[in-house]
Amino acid sequence: MKILFYVFLYICVLPFTSISQENEFTADELFLKARQQAFEQKKYLEAIKLSKEALQQAPEYTDISIFLGRLYTWSDYIDSARMVFTNLDNRDVQDEDFFLAYASLEYWNDQSTRANEIVDKGIALHANSQDLLLLKTKVNYSNNNYEIAENSVNRLLELNPKHTEARALIKNIQEYTAKNAVGISYTFTHFDRQFENDWHIVGLSYRRATPIGSVIFRTNYANKFADNGLQLELEAYPRLSKMFYLYVGAGYSDNVGIFPNYRTGVSLYANLPQSFEGELGYRQLYFNDHIWMYTASVGKYYQNYWFNFRTYLTPGQENISQSYTGTVRYYIKGANDYLGFLVGTGLSPEENRNNLLDNASYRLKTFKVGAEYNFSVNRTNLFSVSSTYYNQEFRPNEKGNQIDITVGYIKTF
Q: What's this model's pTM, rounded to 2 decimal places?
């Protein structure tokens, strides 16, 4: 009888014991469930609850505490996040992810000074951390500390030249750090059939970085058709925000035919998410009549490559003339060290031969292919060499070849 009683008791208690065992998860299992709730289901509050249960079992589990701080940050519980990270700081936690999470919290909440203090402490312990160097770059770029941002992004690119986001950032940062730049360029152009004389163009430029963007003064001297001409240009790149900036340009020359009498241009540029760039704008040339061209381009940084596709559309009385150019750059080191290749069709107003547009030859077929090599010495001496080959229909069903060779030098200071 007694044996039967214990058997009955065991049968009654067994289900509750099994349920209790099923509900007893380890801290690691709770951590895994919390991550699944956060990343797969986007249920941050449930993830917070599971993380806190895990910490009750393992209060010193650093990874879970850091994750809880991140969850509070993403859920906009800023005070709770700071409390978690302050406790970890008091415990002298030295994990790279702790510094990244804590500094990100302060950066996203406009506390750049505190974010810098945290990220610097992290870099002192993890000197080769790409994530911390990228965050340091962003913090200082957003706070207009451009020289510090340039140093950190250059260090990051030394560690990883294929870092896509750093590659996109450095171009914008250097617009502010190089306060002054003087440059000289020379272009030689040879035609096999279209014109008897070679062309020679020399350009002198001065660029000044201002608080609202760069301003460039340029003087171009040209010898074309065995005649000389001079052109004055002014360009500016005013910044509207960290995302948007403008190109505004104008030029004037008394030597019509060698250069347009005057030119104007405006473009709106956007630094888009995922390291994309976009542009919309127009260019206008005046020789004996106005030529209006509308342009659009899209660019993308990927590792240490930059891809760009640009078009110019020129409305005419009977049709719309079109020009397309694709460009690829392979960056070897920093922002000024790269190999570039282009292929395209049609004429563009940016080219030294834009005076060919005056006779409506832009309606004829043109193919071009080119390459360029840019390199820097001690970061302040920038050298470039490029060459472009053109096969152009200069009269209906009659084509000629053209070769451009350009060399340039820029000194920044």
A: 0.79
